[in-house]
Write a structure and sequence with these properties.
Distance between the termini: 55 Å
Number of helices: 6
Order of helices and strands: EHEEHEHEHEHHE
Structural class: alpha/beta
Oligomer: single chain
Length: 229
């Protein structure tokens, strides 16, 4: 049985990834601040603050695995990360976002790479906001842009033993009361769902000739010209 760790497993995307991996036959552990996985059956929940070095070391030791096949860096704070002007953002707020997304990915990767053998795969969760922005998203964009760069750096450093890729999701939701305009603005005709990102993780896990890449999963939005009429 292949083994996988997913950080942020209690979130929308994380829970979807955990569920898909269990269905594929993986033994899955979720590392999350809450120590929960939104009731995804078959997932071992480990409480962990990925931005804290000591917490990461304790969590990996508690898990007690001697082997790891797939690692998904998905954790990251979102509250306050979008919509706050840089003039109003405190240094502590900046650090909270950067540390939870980018520093956490570094700490967790450093901790689990010794468990990964030839054929191991790391998937970092970036965002289309690494490449395009709305106003007042500096900390989030910077953290996701950093993850893109970390991805290709790790791919070169850890290859050929371990492959490292990233996913850049667009609008992903489980809401059902979206407007027609919300859905229709996407070239594929709908917004994204957690399953779309989980499917991308499964693809990258098996894509043996793909490393250092960013797979954009956004329904085509980053390829669409948008002008005010």
């Amino acid at each position: 049985m292949k083994k996988a760790i997913v950080t942020g497993g209690a979130g929308l995307i994380g829970a979807g990834i955990c569920e898909a991996l269990v269905a594929r036959g993986f033994e899955v552990a979720s590392f999350d601040l809450s120590g929960k996985t939104h009731a995804v059956e078959g997932v071992r929940a480990i409480e962990c603050d990925v931005a804290d070095e000591a917490s990461v070391e304790i969590a990996v030791a508690e898990l007690g695995w001697d082997r790891l096949d797939l690692f998904v860096n998905n954790a990251g704070a979102t509250g306050g990360a979008l919509g706050t002007s840089i003039l109003d953002m405190s240094y502590l707020d900046w650090r909270r976002v950067i540390d939870s997304h980018l520093t956490g990915a570094f700490l967790m990767t450093r901790a689990v790479v010794p468990l990964m053998k030839t054929g191991g795969s790391v998937v970092n969760m970036a965002s289309t906001r690494a490449f395009m922005s709305e106003p007042n998203s500096e900390a989030y964009a910077a953290s996701k842009g950093g993850l893109v760069a970390l991805t290709h750096a790790l791919a070169v450093s850890l290859g050929p033993t371990i492959r490292v890729n990233a996913i850049a999701p667009g609008w992903i939701t489980n809401e059902t009361n979206l407007s027609h305009e919300d859905e229709a603005q996407h070239p594929v005709g709908r917004v994204g769902r957690p399953k779309d990102i989980a499917d991308a993780v499964l693809y990258l896990d098996g894509a043996g000739f793909v490393t250092g890449q960013v797979l954009t999963v956004d329904g085509g939005m980053t390829k669409k010209m948008i002008y005010v009429e």
